[in-house]
Structures are given as structure tokens and as C-alpha cells.
Predict the structure.
Amino acid sequence: MAKAAIQAENLVITYNKGKSNEFNALKNINVEIYPREYIILFGPSGCGKSTLLYTILGGNVPDTGHLYVKGEDIYAYTPAEMNRYQQAVIGIVYQQFNLITSISVLDNVALPMIFLNKGVQERNARGQELLRRFGIPERLENKTPVMMSGGQQQRVAVARSLINDPEILLADEPVGNLDSISAEHVMDSFEEINEKDRKTVILVTHDAKYLPYAHRVFYMRDGELRRIVVNPEKPQVKRTKPGETIVTEIEQLARLYPYAEPMELKVKSIVNFATQTIGFTQLERLEKAVLQVLAGTMDENLLMEFLMKSVHAGGVGMHMDEATGVMNRVFALVHYSQDVQKFRAEVHSDNLFLHQRKFIDHLLYYIKEEIGITSTAVQIGILRDAVADRVGGITNAAEFEEKLALPEHLGGAAYDEDAAGKIARHLEKLIAQGGYIIRANELLGAHS
Ligand code: ADP
Ligand code: MG
């Protein structure tokens, strides 16, 4: 089992302790980060992301708790040990580059080596190597950084952070000041540093579009680590613990692909659902096939054929049973998602109630045939209202599920918890595939 690179234990950080402006910035953080992980700290401004990062850097003495790096409590270090830690074990990149404007680019990069008493030749050779690697032209290395673009300055700062070959690289909003193209270059370089150089990367951002870079995303709010989301697209350094993937698939997909087209999200959602243990190449092929199904150019038979064709011959290589299951589930979802979309499209028309009923009938059929639950008339009545409220955006997913599981005398549908969970999960999928939830006011507007 991987030993934690970094472990926070009951970490509490309070600014201005004992003063009138005392502020509890980290409440009780317990977390482990593994060697070679790429972690993103994500959350709104002021939630404590930078505070956690600087605590890892050795800059905030905890009120209580400990911060261990490779098993050592860094706040128990002597000043000399702390210096060594900050110079050689850990590197950092800031939002505002923090380059020294009066010295050359090369000296900026090599500066941290001076503190380790390295000679000028070694410093320059290493500095040049890193500058080349991050695409800084040779003619700029003896100039001061003032004339460089923001993107170039940040790449110099990334080179500097690596000069002493640290094991852990921290970055605080490193692309917050960059245009989108420079930002992408810099973000790609962090990915490379994580993958090729095998460094642990901990990066702060408040921009959701960068979340797919991470192995795991730590969602912070009000000084707390609210949840940890594992990126299913990346092979994990360590197996997920129970309770770590507590967000719904839809939430997860929307966060992982924040700018994906609805169609793209839909394809991923369907494929995700229809398969559990299939390899990456097969997944990619299946995604393409589902795209064709959605476009109407692939029917049940063609999909079956494709699923069962060997991987070698360009297919997915599934056995008959497996392929049949996947095919059925894909087509069930495609049909029902089309119903949801139709429902959405006609929500403003006079046929609202007719379409709502049709949609719910389909859903009931789905519950019976796919989940294997037979519903009583009373349950159907309650389900009807609950689905209308949910699809209308009047209730949220949790409220919908609760309503299904509530006993009859409390106005619920009295499904057992397992069934309620399954129905709710399926409905969420259908809603996601329909695009998004109709806002309550949209629906009410359609009534008036
Ligand atoms: P984030 O990086 O998520 O935006 P920070 O960790 O910088 O948040 O700050 C968390 C909270 O602590 C904020 O409310 C901020 O105002 C406060 N804070 C940060 N640094 C200090 C400090 N040096 N002194 C007092 N309060 C601070
Ligand atoms: Mg910050």
C-alpha cells in the first residue's frame, strides 16, 4: 500500500488568534495524499485553499493537529530542517509569478540552487535545461523577466520550482493571471510534471474546467474539506476508500466535463452506466457506437454485432450475454431520454399534462421491467406527483428519493429504501440525459 506523501491530522488553523479579528480558516482537516497523486483543491474564494497549501509548505503553524510529510511532522522540524524541506523537498508556484525583475531569467531559475551551495556551472546547466524544457527561447535567458509575457513568466516560475528536484510541487492559482492559451500550456506542464517526472502535485484553482487534470478533487468550503471526488478517467494511485465517491454520477460527469456538449455528456453517462469493467479502448469504441445510436444510424442489431465483434477486429469483444445486457440498457436509456427531451420541448405547449403523463408511464414501465419492481395504484399516484415535482425542478434528487421511501401515512410511496434509491438514481440519469432540469419558475411560467 502506498505510504502517504502528505497527511493532515485534525488540522486547525486560526488567523489572529486571541484578537478581535480572530478567524478560523481551517476547521479540522483530515486527509491523506499519496506519492505521485495530482490533487486539486477546489472551492469558492476564502474557503481556505491557500491556507491549506501554505500549511503544507510549512508556513502556518497549526493550532492543533499535525501535518506529516513522508511520515515526518514538519512543524516539529528545527529551523535548519525546515529550510532543507522548503528548498529541496517541496516546490511552489504562485499566481503572480514572483520573479525578481532585476536579475536575469536564468538566475531567477537557478536561484534556489544558490541556497544549496551549488556551483555556477551546475546551476546554469540545470537552469538552461529546465528553461528549454518549458519552451523559453535561449535568447531570453540572459534578459530580465520584465519583457516576457505572463505565460512565459509563469513557465520560468515552474522551471524554478523544479530546480532542486522536489518531490512535491504546490501551485496556488497558477493560471489565474493568464489568458486561456497560456493557461493551457502551463496546466499541461503540471500534468507532465505529475506523469513523467512522477511528482506529487497539489494545485489550487477555483475554475472547474481544470478539474479533469486531477486524480482526486478536494472540495473545500468554509474551512472544511467537504468531500473528495475521484476522477474516474484517471488510473488512481490508490484504491478508492468507501465514502469517497459520494457524489452522483451526473454531478461527477458535469464537474469532470464542465464544458462538454449535452450530447457528449449523454454519451458518457450512458456508456458509464452500461458498462462496469471494460477497458479503455473498448470504452472509446463503445462511446462512438452510442453516438451512432443517438444519431439514429445504429440500430439494435448493428450494436449487438459491434459489441460482439472481437477487439482485434475493431469491436468491443463482449460475450453474447454481456452484449445483450449492454445493448438493452443502452436502448432503454436512449428511448427514455428521448421521452424526457420531448417532455422538455413541449413543456411550454398546451400538451404539458398529456406529455407528463406519457413520460411517467414510460418511467413506470422502466421501473417494472428494468428494476423489477411492481407498483401499487397508490404508489403510482404518489410517484406521478413526485416525478412531476422532480422533473419540474421543484424538488431535488434527495427529496425525491425521500418521498419514495416515506411510509404511506406520511404521504410517501412506501418503496423500500433500496428500491427508492434505484428509482431515484434512474430518474436522475434520465433527467441528465434530457439535458437539465426544468426550472420551477419556467414550469410555473408555462402554466400561467
Ligand atoms: P482561498 O485561498 O480559498 O481563497 P484563503 O486560505 O486565502 O482562502 O483564506 C481563507 C480565509 O482566511 C479567508 O477568509 C481569508 O480572509 C482569511 N485569511 C487568509 N489569510 C489570512 C491572514 N494572513 N490573516 C487573517 N486572515 C486570513
Ligand atoms: Mg487563495
